[in-house]
Structures are given as structure tokens and as C-alpha cells.
């Protein structure tokens, strides 16, 4: 995995002065994302396009901060371009637009594979038996470790937009584990009620799994039935891609997500052409 970026060593006062000047220009809004790259990247998110001008500017500023704060590295020979970094940064910043970059403070890097990647997983079941399995994944969030993504999966979303958003999905896992295990229960704000969250998410999850079993699960990605953590991650990506779906099928979940992310995508997207 790539090491975090390091600052250039200070050689003398003159160089220092130039570096400070550069830093000031960057912080004053002349960022590393060109206008052309930014407007091309905006095409990959209908929700981002629906934001007001000032909110889109905040999203761009936050994306720049994320690009400076995290390292991006290609695996298996993939060369990561500025356009690819910007694509991932914009989507990673949507969930934290009104939360702040500190919510991502406990991890430092994004690793991108050309396509699905193979992992070897070991886990212990409730009887204490250790199982070993090999899985092909398109995304993975390691606790306190890197986020790992398949570029092919991201490109597929951009070619045929639907309710999937791999980057937001993995970012939701990162938010989930801020207070411990991945269990679909991220650290809530002081004005939110944890018991209501647990009750409403559990009820929605149980209803979703029952509907899937009976063949009526044609709502959000069936992968949400894996466990409550995946239900929260899939609900989060759908909240930003097809919020009407969450609001219609799971209105209590929509309200909790709206209060957690401090955003209301339904209100924005109702004004935006598909
Ligand atoms: Zn997941």
C-alpha cells in the first residue's frame, strides 16, 4: 500500500517563501482540479449536479482537500490519472458534504485495481469453527486501513447510471466503523435517537429480507440482505443515487439518513431532470 504523502523538505527561506505562496493560492480556491475535469466529473452524479452553486463549490473544495489528504495508488499495473482521482474524490465527498473531512480521519489511502480483486478471508462462526474462503470483490473497506476499489465497477456505473455507487457504499462502511464494528450503526449526532435508529433500521432490514425470500424484493440491491452493515451501506448509496426509492419503500430509514448525512437528496432531485 502506498505511503502517505510527505511534505517537501525546507531548503532555505527563499524556497520556503515560494512554498507558502503556493499553499496560499491553493487554499484560496485555485485548486488542483481543472474546470474541464470538474464539469466532466459532475456528469457522473445526478445528485451532485442538482446541488446549488454554492454547495457544488463546497463539494469541489472538499474534494480538493480529500485529494491532498489521501493517497491514491493503482494496483496490478493500473495507472491512476487525475480524472480518476477526481471521480473518486467527488463521490467520496458527497456523504460528508455537511459532516466534514474529519469523518474520514482514520484512514489514509485508496487502492484501485483495474477490475475485481481476489481476497482471502478467514472468519470464526458462532460455534468457534474457523472458515477460510477466497472471494472476488469490487470494493472493500478495511477498518482503519485503505479503501480498495475496482475501477471497472466504477466505469460500469458511469456508463449505465443506476442506483449503485461503489465509492459511496464503501464510504458508508468507513462511517459505520467509526464507533466500532460494522453493524449499520454509525456514530449519530447529539440530536438523534439511537433507539429509534436501531428499531427502524432493524424493521426495514427484516421486511426487506422477508420480501426477498418471498420473491418481492425488487427494490434496492439484494446485496443489502447480507447483514445490517450491508443494508446501511446499500441504503446510503441508494439515498444519494435514487433517493425516491428509499423514501418510498423505507420512509423511516430515509428520515434517519437525511438527519445523519444532513442532506435531503429527494428535495434536490425532484427538480432535476433524469
Ligand atoms: Zn459492503
Tally of distinct domains = 1
Strand order of the largest sheet: 1-2-6-5
Biggest sheet record? 4 strands, mixed
CATH topology tier name: Collagenase (Catalytic Domain)
The CATH homologous superfamily is termed Collagenase (Catalytic Domain)
What is the name of the CATH class? Alpha Beta
Strand content is: 5-15%
Mean pLDDT: 88
Number of strands: 6
CATH architecture: 3-Layer(aba) Sandwich
Measured distance between first and last alpha carbons: 38 Å
**Element-by-element helix/strand order:** HHHHEHEEEEEHHHHHHH
Bound molecules: zinc ion
Folded structure, characterized:
- The protein is α/β, with parallel strands linked by helices and 274 residues long.
- The protein has one domain: Collagenase (Catalytic Domain).
- The protein contains 12 helices and 6 strands.
- The strands form 2 sheets. A 4-stranded mixed β-sheet has the order 1-2-6-5. It has a two-stranded antiparallel sheet with strand order 3-4.
- Strand 1, helix 5 and strand 2 form a beta-alpha-beta unit.
- Helix 7 packs across helix 9 and helix 9 packs across helix 10.
- 32% of the residues are buried.
- Zinc ion (ZN) binds next to helix 7 and helix 9.
Secondary structure elements and pairings:
Layout: H1 13-27, H2 35-42, H3 46-50, H4 53-69, E1 71-74, H5 82-93, E2 109-113, E3 117-124, E4 130-137, E5 139-141, E6 147-150, H6 151-159, H7 166-176, H8 194-213, H9 228-241, H10 243-249, H11 251-261, H12 265-269
Parallel strand pairs: 1-2, 2-6
Antiparallel strand pairs: 3-4, 5-6
Helix pairs in contact: 2-5, 4-5, 7-9, 9-10, 10-11
Amino acid at each position: 500500500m502506498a505511503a502517505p504523502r510527505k511534505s517537501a523538505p525546507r531548503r532555505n527561506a527563499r524556497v520556503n517563501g515560494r512554498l507558502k505562496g503556493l499553499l496560499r493560492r491553493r487554499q484560496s480556491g485555485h485548486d488542483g482540479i481543472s474546470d474541464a475535469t470538474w464539469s466532466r466529473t459532475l456528469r457522473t452524479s445526478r445528485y451532485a449536479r442538482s446541488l446549488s452553486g454554492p454547495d457544488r463549490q463546497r463539494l469541489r473544495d472538499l474534494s480538493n482537500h480529500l485529494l491532498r489528504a489521501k493517497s491514491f495508488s493503482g494496483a496490478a499495473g493500473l495507472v491512476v490519472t487525475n480524472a480518476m482521482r477526481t471521480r473518486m474524490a467527488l463521490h467520496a465527498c458527497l456523504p460528508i458534504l455537511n459532516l466534514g473531512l474529519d469523518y474520514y480521519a482514520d484512514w489514509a489511502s485508496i487502492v484501485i485495481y483495474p477490475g475485481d480483486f481476489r481476497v482471502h478471508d478467514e472468519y470464526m462462526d458462532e460455534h468457534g469453527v474457523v472458515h477460510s474462503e477466497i472471494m472476488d470483490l469490487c470494493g472493500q473497506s478495511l477498518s482503519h486501513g485503505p479503501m480498495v476499489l475496482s475501477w471497472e465497477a466504477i466505469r460500469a456505473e458511469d456508463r449505465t447510471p443506476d442506483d449503485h455507487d461503489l465509492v459511496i457504499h464503501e464510504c458508508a462502511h468507513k462511517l459505520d466503523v467509526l464507533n466500532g464494528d460494522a453493524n449499520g450503526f454509525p456514530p449519530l449526532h447529539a440530536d438523534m435517537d439511537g433507539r429509534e435508529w436501531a428499531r427502524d433500521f432493524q424493521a426495514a432490514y427484516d421486511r426487506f429480507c422477508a420480501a426477498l425470500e418471498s420473491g418481492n424484493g425488487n427494490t434496492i440491491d439484494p446485496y443489502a440482505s447480507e447483514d445490517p452493515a450491508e443494508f446501511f451501506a446499500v441504503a446510503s448509496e441508494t439515498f444519494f443515487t435514487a433517493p425516491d426509492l428509499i423514501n418510498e419503500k423505507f420512509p423511516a430509514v430515509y428520515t434517519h439518513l437525511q438527519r445523519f448525512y444532513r442532506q435531503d437528496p429527494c428535495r434536490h432531485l425532484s427538480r432535476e431532470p433524469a
